[in-house]
Specification:
single chain, about 300 residues, mainly alpha, about 80% helix, globular
């Protein structure tokens, strides 16, 4: 594997790890405020955290006379990524209100199948090993997250649309990340999503300052780590990686969330859930193997 691809894969794994642990923070945060308020605050916080880094990088590039990406492209990319992120995150939060966490987790990770399907319409070639890995990962997610009968409810429908929007978000990032600075793109997407969610919160939820003070710990993790750090890792990591491979690595967040629930909340994993973890990790390893390595294994 090329060093660049290995580095990108590691950055995406870190993002998935942070998001997996963030499920705990999101669950606790909803005890203090509504989905619009929580997402608005976390995304604005993520944008503010990245702003000093954006200014620092701009200053350094100016001193070194480094040519920067076109401002129009960066703004367009930031807004487009922010719209997709805002829509997906809100639908996920609303979906969890009307369905079980297990079903929501499985349905959301369907983006590992949706991304390569969307890629066909964008004329992207998808290797056979990626399709095989996607199927294995989907089976693993089912064993890992589904503990009840599969039936689409109101919440399931919301999360299904959320999975589609997260797929769009991955592909939009894939389009804009090579054309714009990753940190600026990430900062702008948070600002866009944060403003939209905050307006929604003021209209629909009437949040109080005490809500944010009481829920500052989960909010800070979701805003600084999950938003400011992890989504930036996603933007930078996807720059040199196929979006389908990226979606498979990012799907590890469900595995991490189960492990985080076990370690932090004391939720034990059943043999079936552990087998699901093994399948997902196996799928990610499969998609990272070079083609000649696969041929050697087959021989």
């Amino acid at each position: 594997m090329k060093k660049t691809a290995l580095r990108s894969s590691f950055l995406l794994f870190l993002a998935a790890f942070i998001w997996g642990v963030a499920f705990v923070a999101q669950s606790v945060g909803m005890d203090y405020m509504g989905p619009f308020s929580f997402n608005g605050a976390r995304f604005l916080m993520g944008s503010i955290v990245l702003l000093p880094l954006v200014l620092y990088r701009r200053k350094k590039d100016k001193e070194k006379q480094v040519k920067r990406a076109d401002l129009k492209t960066t703004l367009t990319g930031g807004v487009c990524c922010g719209l997709a992120l805002c829509s997906a995150a809100l639908l996920q939060q609303f979906g969890i209100m009307y369905t079980t966490v297990g079903k929501a987790g499985f349905i959301t990770t369907l983006y590992i199948i949706i991304v390569p399907i969307m890629g066909i319409f964008l004329k992207k070639k998808v290797p056979g090993k990626v399709w095989l890995a996607a199927v294995i990962a989907a089976v693993g997610m089912y064993l890992l997250c589904m503990n009840e009968s599969f039936r689409l409810s109101r919440g399931d429908t919301y999360v299904c649309i959320c999975a589609i929007l997260f797929s769009v978000h991955i592909l939009v990032i894939d389009y804009f990340s090579p054309k714009a600075d990753g940190v600026e793109l990430s900062c702008l997407q948070f600002l866009t999503a944060g403003v939209i969610c905050s307006v929604g919160a003021l209209i629909l939820e009437k949040p109080q300052l005490s809500d944010f003070i009481d829920g500052i710990v989960p909010l800070a993790y979701a805003g600084i780590m999950s938003s400011g750090v992890a989504y930036t890792l996603q933007v930078v990591g996807q720059k040199d990686l196929d979006p389908t491979v990226a979606s498979l690595i990012l799907s590890l967040e469900s595995v991490v969330s189960m492990l985080a629930g076990w370690v932090i909340l004391g939720q034990a994993l059943s043999p079936r859930e552990l087998f699901g973890c093994i399948l997902v990790f196996g799928a990610v390893i499969l998609v990272q193997l070079p083609d000649k390595g696969l041929r050697a294994v087959r021989e």
